[in-house]
Amino acid sequence: MNIERVKINYYKSIKEPMVLNFLSPSILIGQNNSGKSNILDAIEFALGNPIEGHNIFYKKADIEVDLIFDGKEQDENNFPDDKAKFILKDGERKLIFANKEIKYNKSLAILLSSKIKRLDEEAFRDYKQIELDYNSLFNYPTNLERFKEHLKSHFPKISTTKNALDVSYENEGLYEGDRRVTIDRLGSGFRRIFTMLLYIFHPRYSIVMISEPETHLHPAVIKRLLWAMQNSNFGQIIFTTHSPLFVTPISLRNLIRVVKNENNFTTAFSIDNEKYDYKRLIQELNADNLEMFFTDKVILVEGVSDRLLVRGLIDKFYQGQKDIKVIQTHGKGNVMLYLELLNIFKIPFLVILDRDAIRTNHIRDMMNYLQINLPPLSEQELINALKQYNIYILPNGDLENNYPRRYQLHDSKSNNALRAANLIGPEDYKSKVMSNLKEIIEDI
């Protein structure tokens, strides 16, 4: 059983209809309290495994889940089709196929809920249940071998045997070299990897929902875990995360950005059917600029020197509370690539360009994409008008004309910018030559 699509309304912080298309893995990102966990709660609540007390407080919950069943599930349960829509509305649950509605009863509730495994902090500490599920994995040799293979890639010194999780030393267990150990005696990182891989490869659970899988894990381990998730081929994985290491050009289609809107309601954005230049993104995106998905606002600049100086000025003089990420686009021609991505995921942005950009097609392309319609204007009038759309064009040329010359002592623009970022003080910042950059910093 897999989830193809879910529609949620009137559940916790989700007060407006939210439609999400799920791939595997589906990666939910967003700040704390944005509502990521509420999405997982809604799925768990709807599919026959209600959280205690929810039936009383969430009678208004309106949840639809499009499900896909495999052939075995279809045959064993005498389902008329492999696709169905699960509906929870006004406290009533229904499972509707194309030409037939299946009565929701206890056996159907058990079937649906048994296919879901929720891994939160409590589940990671439930060694008894983990032991039961690990021992049952020995009934599925193919899955067991895949599990062992991936576990060994993370921890080459660990070997596994049956009863590996028995907290008593009297039985066989995990072995680290020749030393017998049990999972509760090993590090928290190992315990989390062991548990996640167990459920990722366990055929009993079709849908595995994980809260912050990166906790206690080394960056290299996180990358290998993502690879395992992308290549498990056994079930569907949905997880929440604060780690940019799970975000790559390849995983962008799996990404769901969860935010609170101006009404403090949870909403979400994803690429879905949006077109984007995948090949160019592979060339452009790296671990540093992928952090833009986890920040409050992104500032796009053209080059290295722009990034160094703007970052330095923000660190010294920005007085707001937002987390700001400055990204160099390596030229005007790449700005649109980032702009499209930021717009799709509704990440607030600000663009800083040299004056010569006003005479290029790049400005026209940005205006067309952002649907900015302005009457015929002079260059200076256009520069002023674009500020309201968070596009700032330096009116007096390039960056070097916007900070004191006495800091420009090197042949390298980036060295000059780095020097200026370190030495510019409050009086410099208030000077006329820096008025354009000061205006930008204050407008963030």
UniProtKB/TrEMBL annotation:
<feature type="domain" description="ATPase AAA-type core">
    <location>
        <begin position="121"/>
        <end position="247"/>
    </location>
</feature>
<feature type="domain" description="OLD protein-like TOPRIM">
    <location>
        <begin position="293"/>
        <end position="356"/>
    </location>
</feature>
<protein>
    <submittedName>
        <fullName>Uncharacterized protein</fullName>
    </submittedName>
</protein>
<dbReference type="InterPro" id="IPR041685">
    <property type="entry name" value="AAA_GajA/Old/RecF-like"/>
</dbReference>
<dbReference type="Pfam" id="PF13304">
    <property type="entry name" value="AAA_21"/>
</dbReference>
<dbReference type="InterPro" id="IPR034139">
    <property type="entry name" value="TOPRIM_OLD"/>
</dbReference>
<dbReference type="InterPro" id="IPR051396">
    <property type="entry name" value="Bact_Antivir_Def_Nuclease"/>
</dbReference>
<dbReference type="GO" id="GO:0005524">
    <property type="term" value="F:ATP binding"/>
</dbReference>
<dbReference type="InterPro" id="IPR027417">
    <property type="entry name" value="P-loop_NTPase"/>
</dbReference>
<feature type="domain" description="Endonuclease GajA/Old nuclease/RecF-like AAA">
    <location>
        <begin position="1"/>
        <end position="72"/>
    </location>
</feature>
<dbReference type="Pfam" id="PF20469">
    <property type="entry name" value="OLD-like_TOPRIM"/>
</dbReference>
<dbReference type="Pfam" id="PF13175">
    <property type="entry name" value="AAA_15"/>
</dbReference>
<dbReference type="InterPro" id="IPR003959">
    <property type="entry name" value="ATPase_AAA_core"/>
</dbReference>
<dbReference type="GO" id="GO:0016887">
    <property type="term" value="F:ATP hydrolysis activity"/>
</dbReference>
